[in-house]
Q: What sequence folds into this?
């Protein structure tokens, strides 16, 4: 039976997806976590480590995508095969999907999708493939963000989650002025002239 860990800060999502996967008879939920700290603690306790991790983009105030490298590091330290990371999020945004894939996720499924799409994504991961619904048309906007640095990617992600400059500064531990400077560079690199333009990237 395929072991799965769920990392999502919405209990209803965790319970709903967990119940559906268990009912299929193919999967077992090894554990669940609602934030970065809980996720790390969960994986430190689990033995063996789960083959699949289902992760949300937003973990409360935390950036779920930034957790991907840490998850892979934990598996490497345990000398375990890398996890198949499936992002399941309310955000249906090509930028966020591409960032997830760039960080090492293998699949991205919107929470608005049919439940069976999660199974399709998991099957693709287990077969060594990636899965993104073709409707997202990923390649059309790829060049718009290809020049962004890691920090700039983080900031655009938070902008797309509708956080203000003050909230972004607080979350990243930076000053408002620093965030504003980063945004100025992002505008130049992407050709955006406003926050609304960034949201449409």
A:
């Amino acid at each position: 039976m395929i072991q799965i860990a769920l990392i999502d800060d919405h209990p209803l999502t965790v319970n709903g997806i967990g119940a559906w996967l268990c009912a299929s008879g193919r999967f077992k939920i090894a554990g669940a976590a609602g934030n970065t700290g809980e996720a790390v603690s969960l994986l430190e306790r689990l033995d063996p480590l789960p083959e699949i991790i289902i992760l949300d983009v937003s973990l409360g105030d935390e950036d779920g995508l930034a957790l991907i490298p840490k998850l892979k590091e934990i598996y490497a330290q345990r000398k375990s095969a890398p996890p198949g990371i499936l992002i399941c999020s309310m955000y249906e945004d090509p930028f966020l999907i591409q960032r997830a894939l760039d960080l090492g996720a293998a699949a991205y499924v919107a929470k608005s999708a049919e439940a069976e799409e999660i199974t399709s994504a998991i099957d693709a991961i287990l077969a060594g493939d990636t899965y993104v619904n073709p409707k997202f048309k990923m390649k059309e906007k790829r060049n718009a963000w290809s020049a962004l640095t890691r920090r700039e990617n983080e900031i655009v992600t938070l902008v797309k989650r509708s956080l203000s400059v003050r909230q972004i500064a607080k979350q990243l531990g930076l000053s408002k002025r620093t965030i504003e400077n980063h945004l100025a560079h992002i505008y130049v690199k992407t050709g955006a002239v406003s926050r609304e333009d960034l949201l449409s990237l």
Notes: The first helix runs from residue 11 to 23. The longest strand covers residues 27-33.
